[in-house]
Amino acid sequence: MKWTNIRTKLILFLLLPTLICIMATMYISYSYTTQSLRTRAVDENKNLLYQGSKNINSLIQEVNRLSLSVYSDSDFYRLLEAGYDDLSSDIAIYNSLSYISTSLPDISQVYLYGVKDSKATLITDNTTPKRWLVNMPYLESNITGSSPVSVQSTHISNAYGLNLPLIQFTPEPVFTLHRRIERIPSSEALGYLSIDVKLTALAEIVDQLYEQDQEKTYVVDSDGMLVYGQDADSLGKPLNAAWYSKQIAPNTEAQGYFEEGGSVFIYQKVEGTGLSWMLVKQIPVSYLFREAKEAAGINLLLLFLLMTMIIALTIFISFRITAPIKQLTRYMNQVRTGNLEVEISPAGNDEIGVLTEHFRSMMDTINNLILREYRLELSNKTNELRALQSQINPHFLNNTLQIIGTLALEMKVPQIYALLSALAKMMRYSMYNDEKIVTIQNELEHVKAYIELQKERFENKFSFRYDMEEPLLNALMPKMILQPIVENYFKHGFNLSRSDGLIEITAARLATGRMEIMIRNNGNVIPLARLEKLRQELEQPAPLDVTAVKNSDSRRDAPGAGIGLGNVLARLRLVCGDDAALTVDNLPEGGVLIRLEIEILTESERI
Known about the structure:
The chain crosses the membrane at residues 300-323. The protein is α+β, with helices and mostly antiparallel strands. It has helices spanning 6-67, 69-72, 74-82, 87-103, 199-206, 242-248, 285-288, 290-320, 323-336, 351-390, 393-411, 415-431, 440-457, 482-493, 528-539, 546-550, 553-556, 565-576; strands at residues 107-114, 119-124, 130-133, 149-156, 173-182, 189-198, 216-221, 226-228, 255-260, 263-272, 275-284, 437-439, 462-468, 476-478, 501-509, 514-521, 581-586, 592-599.
């Protein structure tokens, strides 16, 4: 199998990218899926543990509420404060403690120590209440801190120092709420109350927070003692786990998560009266990502089947279709859509490569022919512009020279110098044929020089004004546009019997990004029939004909037409495009308004 063979290249370059793309897609998909599963599991379990913490706190607060019933039971509080020692007092205390013991089904036993009478009382499930004399309260029940309430973590229940055997008493894991009963409003202790709660109450809440076969939960107090967990032997003992001592113990955040040792840990603080526990859930990563692994296994199977199919199809297609043929087809499609500058790359040394080379040579020949035709068209347009301008300059310059010569013979004054200067400016502007596109500023200067000559000719019987926005002075337009329009006023509209003649030129920017130039005068109006005919000619001007332009002298003498408004419009469209516009209107108060509208150009190809 030759490396230069198109068939070999096609097989290799199709199989390798396909395999790489599929493997990359599987990796990205697996990474995205696992990250999504991790994020979703963390968010869901944060909410779950938060609700669990609320339930645990509610349980502790319910036990705390029961411990506060000693204050609402006036008889019990009075007996505890007075310290009566008789049978009726004992019965009353038994009844109050029994009420506390039976209020919740998970209360194991209730212990009370009265400071006044130095007696301890114990109410236990399925046993007879006991009351005995003792000097000091039980050690864990003797709360001496500022807070009258504390919660003791999980421990094995005991008889609170009672030496007599208790029939049917079975020690079991419990957690205990201890309360110091105070003489209100002082903090003097009247007694000490302890309520043992079975772990079944805690288990009913915690066991709803995890999958028992796969996940684990821990309830740890502020001293690192295990309050609740799946290992019964570790209850009430320090939690010896590196993840706890490194990540959770020094952390002060109320909620968070981390990943360590192949597991994701989510934790939530449980805080309340006398309570500071941490609820932790451990989720193995293998269990968390089980769905992603199942999907990855299915994807691998599909990859095997897909690659088998791709290899078979690639080998089949390589015998029928080749890449160079497709590439050559794309070149042809681009040429068909009008892209004649398409870059055709060599396709090799085989038969398709030779065909591609011939196609490129053919496109080069076509482009060269088009380029020559384009240059010829540009040359023709340049000749058209020069012919259009040649109809204006000789006629005007001849008349002007006669005027200045006559003035020089008759008046012999220095004013001739100013007139000659103005004429020189016009001659330089008109005869400098290399510049066919000029700025509005240049065109305006040419008009001003022309006006100086006409003021002398018509003995200052008219005034000239112009108003143009400053930024528009640098805009570009074809040469010799404004002067022929102004000349029409003196040829066809100027009234020698008036001394208040006026011609005004203004230029302004339009909202569309175009500009308008307006030339108005107060001379004679254009006859309506001629005006209508002129408008029709300007709306749909015929294609530019240089021969017709040269022989257009008879048209110039038409009233109001002047030196070819059609000439002006034709040159505007030749340079500025077909959207250039020229309109002519008679003014109601007398006179003519000519309006030009063109694009605002700052750069243009010099013709």
